[in-house]
Amino acid sequence: MNDSNDNNAGINMPRRGFIGGVGLTAMAAALPSMAATERTNDSSSTVKTPAPGLRRLGGLEVSEVGLGCMGGSGYYYPFPGKARMISVIRDAVERGVTFFDTAETYGPFTNEEVVGEALQPMRQKVVIATKFGFSYNGTERTGLDSRPANIRRAVEGSLRRLRTDYIDLLYQHRVDPKVPIEDVAGTVKDLIAEGKVKHFGMSEPGPRTLRRAHAVQPVAAVQNEYSLLERSPEKNEILAICEELGIGFVPWGPVARGFLIGRFGEGTVFAKEDNRAGVPFFFPDAMKQNLAVYDLAHRWAQRKGVTPGQLSLAWLLAQKPWIVPIPGTTDPWHLAENLGAVNARFTPDELLQFRRELEAIRIVGERAAPGTLAMSDVEAPEKK
Ligand SMILES: NC(=O)c1ccc[n+]([C@@H]2O[C@H](COP(=O)([O-])OP(=O)(O)OC[C@H]3O[C@@H](n4cnc5c(N)ncnc54)[C@H](OP(=O)(O)O)[C@@H]3O)[C@@H](O)[C@H]2O)c1
């Protein structure tokens, strides 16, 4: 799984077409563009961003753009350090973000500590989402484990590290092929009755398993990878089931891990420890072809006076009113840029035209290595 590897450095190569190609100074003033070339010594807090509106994920109300906090514990180079991540999280609250995403397995454990410390002073104002689903030997992850006792162990640890007495949204991180989903949903239902959890979520479930879980305990949100580059939720029924059952949808990887920002080019080499080094979409031959998706976003961004990242997030927001992307960033300027996406709009005709152009692009490779992909779209065993 690409959110679960070690926390070592990678190499970032220059953006393709972003710094050089997009006329940043020509962009609409209301949509801040935070390219490194435009930064001054001023703090990003001087940059005004539009306050995000609110959206519903099942019974939960959140800001229409959330913050993915995983990068605060490594994964993508450069690594920020705890103090900077805490400051980015608090900056996000100041800017109107109310939805923060973490997981037991980020670190493992350390990301929840960072999020907990950052949000403790404003706990009542925010929605914290975390995830369970793995077992550990110390800090070594030993496998999937969604047995009820392990869910309870995870929740007690998450509550402690998050410095709170309730978790707003608790996701199963990946379906455990050994545990009936009725047992998982039943355990979360009990935790909700006990007041320790407010809402239930699932990440990358199989479609039948999602329906079965929802029948036991209504699912507020599904969190799957979804972006201009990775559109499997459109094809594997998950978005359709969410619409049918009134479940919200939270795209992770909404800027394709930096690809849609223009951070990579044909010559990009990731250090082997950077999570993206193992992503087949970014292998050299695939990258060469897949950059056509970035080029499309870049072209439309220029036309609309926004950045490619903003265009990519705005496209997700325009798909359904119950979709809430959680771009991950460890950088205050990037945060400000991402929030600018809420001002970018597509007309219905533009959406159709954009989709025609997008679907004409042949995307090469996969979003993860086969072993990691095998943990997605999994159906839980039947309850005997
Ligand atoms: N459920 C799951 O299985 C799963 C899996 C992975 C992630 N997640 C969650 O989803 C969140 C988002 O996914 P993700 O972080 O994998 O992918 P992402 O949000 O698509 O991309 C994050 C990457 O893009 C860069 N970036 C973001 N905005 C930028 C901007 N405006 N300008 C330049 N660079 C920018 C970030 O670098 P900087 O830090 O330098 O901005 C980081 O390297 C995570 O934080 C995590 O909470 C869930």
TrEMBL record:
User: Where do the NADP-dependent oxidoreductase domain residues begin and end?
Assistant: 82-352
Q: Which GO terms describe its molecular function?
A: oxidoreductase activity
Q: Which UniProt keywords apply?
A: Oxidoreductase, Signal
Tell me the Pfam families matching this sequence: Aldo_ket_red (PF00248)
The source's superkingdom equals: Bacteria
A single cellular component GO annotation: cytoplasm
Q: Entry's PROSITE patterns?
A: TAT
| Keyword Disulfide bond part of the UniProt annotation | no
Q: What is this protein called?
A: Aldo/keto reductase
